Amino acid sequence: MDKLWVWVLFLSCVTVSSFNVQFDEFYSRSFVRDHIIVSYSLQDAETLSYNMTIKTHFPGKLLMHVFVRKLDDLPGGANNFELFKMKNMDFCKSLEALRNVSMEHYQNESILPSTFLVSCPIIAGFYYVKDAHFDVSLMPLRIKKGRYLVNIELIQVYEEVTKLVNCKIKVAMRQTVQGRPPKELKTTAPTTEQSEQADSQLEYDFEESE
Predict the structure, then answer these.
(1) How confident is the model at residue 109 (pLDDT cuts 50, 70, 90)?
(2) Which of 19, 63, 119, 127 is the 20 to 30 A CA-CA neighbour of 98?
């Protein structure tokens, strides 16, 4: 299967509905804070809201690195393995492919939120995703229960290579336990110390997957 469509199918899970998939961790950072500002929040470990303010036009070519790993069921365990890795993906072509995928569940609306980045070129503006969930029921491929790590990095190639934004996401497919209060996670823009620690882990993950 074409790597672009593998990525499209994976992203098809991120919609406005969900059942037993939880965010264990979500981290995102802008490397060009004078030009891109990101903030985000997690509630009940299942609902993600993400804001991105872009202050300038980004010319040249935009590429993505995407890395997905199956994690050990126990945090810190050694049973981890790579599901797929895609480097130098064309970001604009990915947006176009996602824009053309619709969901019958939602009156054939595109899986790409109209309030977020939907096409190129990327222009200045405020973009957001509100109350997004990870819905594995919409995934055409079978995903096993367990823990997963997704690393995404957006890069601009224009005279030189510039990192723009990254995201690090850990999700877990779990059985819902009735009667147990939901775990609540809240986070906003990371501190400098958090950024350095998460970036170090992100680089390690990519290098280890070579």
Answers:
(1) low
(2) 19
